[in-house]
Specification:
By secondary structure, the protein is mostly helical. 71% of the residues lie in helices and 1% in strands. Strands 1-2 form a two-stranded antiparallel ribbon.
Length: 322
């Protein structure tokens, strides 16, 4: 008894669909392999350029790529915790490498805050103040940029372009400008992060406003409410949870940005980390990295918890909008 599967006779429409599918499959494979080949060519050209720029030493130095990680190993693992909490080191020799207690910030005669904890608090304060400033001005500008609240096109155009200008440049570029004017310290860092935050939050805020339910605003308009009253009582209660959620998300970003700006003179933990790396202080560098990682994780978890409380757990469930 024959077990061969009889061939299926396709209609003209079926053959046309199959031929079209085969053409699409061929194009997809062609684009995929073409893209991989193009990336390989670009990578090879980049490596060649890097090698030529470094006088042929790029490939020679590749085997030493991870030497820096090996150089970070301190004499003792306990040195990391001594450096983090400003405890005396048994290896102290009068050099900057082991002068952990010198960085203490005394609150009273006997109570002190470890240097790196103090610097981390300074970085968080930079991010917090910048986020509050960015939230305030982003809140004020977003309603003027929303299409459903501002009928004057020239005003919407001006406000949107202004916010685009504020977020067009990275924080570190803005910080370099203000550091040159105001000298080193946390104030230029706050200004730089706040400027970028205004532009970023302003854009997200007006997009939320444009998706708001306009029926409360229409009811207030029918009852004679002015523009400010319609926005404050008809729109703000709807959008405020999302506004605060975006602000918390931006705060996490600003903590990282403040750390980077600190490395170029903006104060905080970033500046201390740069000095520690440049001087080859292994225990201090690892202590700062561990503290920075723990702080970022803590800020992420706290912000995520607060966001869930604001917008509801259902927004974070699988298959639901968020």
């Amino acid at each position: 008894m024959s077990t061969a599967i009889p061939s299926v006779q396709r209609s003209a429409e079926g053959r046309l669909v199959e031929r079209h599918w085969q053409e699409m499959l061929f194009k997809r494979r062609l684009y995929t392999w073409g893209g991989i080949f193009g990336l390989a060519v670009i990578l090879a050209a980049s490596l060649w350029f890097a090698n030529e720029t470094n006088a042929g030493k790029f490939f020679d130095r590749l085997p030493h790529f991870f030497d820096f990680i090996g150089d970070l190993i301190p004499r003792s693992g306990a040195e990391i915790w001594r450096a983090m909490f400003d405890l005396p080191s048994p290896y102290a020799d009068g050099s900057l490498k082991y002068n952990y207690p010198d960085g203490r910030f005394y609150l009273t005669e006997n109570i002190y805050v470890p240097e790196y904890v103090y610097k981390m608090i300074e970085t968080i304060n930079i991010a917090l103040v910048a986020t509050l400033i960015g939230f305030t001005f982003g809140f004020l500008l977003c309603f003027l940029a929303a299409r459903n609240l501002t009928t004057r096109r020239w005003l919407r155009f001006f406000v949107r372009r202004f916010m685009e200008l504020l977020r067009a440049f990275p924080e570190i570029v803005i910080a370099g400008f203000f550091l040159a004017i105001l000298s080193l310290g946390p104030i230029p860092a706050v200004i730089a992060v706040a400027i970028h935050t205004i532009g970023a939050l302003g854009k997200m805020f007006f997009e939320v406003v444009e998706n708001a339910d306009m029926r409360p605003e229409e009811g207030l308009r029918a009852s004679g409410g002015n523009w400010v009253e319609r926005v404050w009582f008809g729109i703000v209660p709807q959008v405020m949870p999302n506004f605060l959620s975006y602000a918390l998300l931006r705060f996490k970003i600003n903590v990282r940005a403040s750390t980077i700006i600190g490395a170029v003179g903006g104060g905080g933990i970033g500046e201390t980390l740069r000095l520690s790396i440049s001087r080859g202080h292994e225990a201090k560098t690892l202590a700062i990295i561990i503290l920075l990682f723990a702080t970022i994780v803590a800020v992420d978890q706290i912000s995520a918890h607060l966001r869930k409380r604001l917008v509801g757990n259902q927004a974070f469930e699988f298959g639901r909008g968020g």
